Amino acid sequence: MEFGLALRVDEPLVPIKSSTQIEKASYERWEQSNCLSLMFIKSSIGKSIRGSIFECAKVKEDLKAIEQQFETSDKALVSTLMTKMCSMKFNGTKGVHEHIMEMRDIIAQLKSLEIEMSESFLVHFILNSLPSEYEPFKISYNTHKENGLSMNF
């Protein structure tokens, strides 16, 4: 039996009385492959995730439903990460280095979700998250940047 047949081949027509033995056997092989593929997918996905995905009778449709669920999840994650990054301000409870590293981590997560931002924007965004007591540092950075130096975050 071909396990992935239902993924590679479109569903054949449902056999009728006048169908040939080959057509009936082809449909039966496809149906078994579809059933096994669906069972494999369901057994591989956790119950908490499985409940949020619309169940389909065909494996190709099931995979599309799973893909759509995760696209929605990615969009929600992007929104959450952007909100977190925009609201981050250095408050002195941790070191500046740790604050910057947390922001870099969020930026890396956004990049993995195909959200690109220029390095210049990110540097200014991070600098703006620092309180006013870091103004001399910000001024120094901006002055040196104009002279061709850059900050490697």
From TrEMBL:
Species annotation = Vitis vinifera (Grape)
Pfam families in the record: Retrotran_gag_2
The organism's superkingdom is given as Eukaryota
Protein name, entry field = Retrovirus-related Pol polyprotein from transposon TNT 1-94
Q: Which PANTHER family match?
A: OS04G0629600 PROTEIN
